[in-house]
Request: fold
Amino acid sequence: MLNRSALLLRYKTPAVQWINDADPAPGSTPITEAEVNRDRTVYLVSDEVAESLEEVRRWIKANWRNLFESELEEWYTDPALWPKRTLKRFDEWFEVECHSVMIDTQGTPIIDDEASD
Reply:
């Protein structure tokens, strides 16, 4: 078991609409909410965050901007395409899931692929 909790952001309809409208490729098929939410980024947070919904919300209020920008950057790296970012919009665009139990089934060391030697 890991001493972390997992936080995921599930995209809601307004976020998916932005993805499709921000910089559409000519003739492209719009991406669906199911496609967007099929494989999500997992943010590891401290165990304390997952202790209650109030703690999750407190953590979100302190970190929403970084989360929002991380998610936007996955779609468009040019900030000129990004919408105005507010906590209200974050709440309209994302459903927050927090999972308190993470079990490492591999039994091998966890390695940070981006850590410098």
